[in-house]
Amino acid sequence: MKQNSPLFIGITGGVGAGKSEILSFIRRHYRCEIYLADDVAHEVKKPGTDCFRKLVSLLGRDILNADGEIDKKKMADMIFSDRERLLKVNGIIHPAVKQYLLDRLALARAGLSCELFFVEAALLIEGGYRELVDELWYVYARSEVRARRLADARGYSPEKIRAIMDSQLSEEDFRKNCDFVIDNSGSLTDSTEQIKKRLEKYTWLE
What we know:
globular, Rossmann fold, 2 domains, alpha/beta
């Protein structure tokens, strides 16, 4: 199964599937680096970056807060009512996120301590990561399980849960595009046994 060292794995799945707890387990027990695409997107927008300069050039300095950083809410208000502007912003941020990850991957591959390199996002498939990663993993959970988790953990209403789920890829699309499916509908122990079997060639950390 080892193709590169470290192996570059994308982890995706619908809201409420339990990606965070899966990654928490992996972080504790494998020699790995894990990046969340949302966190990376925040990192590449910091002042002084090429991405920051391009966004300010496109949207103006009105998107900045008092500290001179991009205000997430201000930017959201400017772009989500304007599809053309949204596409332009995504055209700046998404390549910057990918380049950030590839730079970190190159550093990891130049060293010896990391065997697995993960990126997590709900939109990896839509974002074109299928061509970037070595493997794409789908964290699956039955819709009723996801709905219960979202209601319990976040207090979402049934209507909000349904709207979010309907806006994401179908189970069929996730499965069609992914190399490995983790069924996270049951206990975490069940899920981790699936991961341990998949990663049995890699170093296990107690």
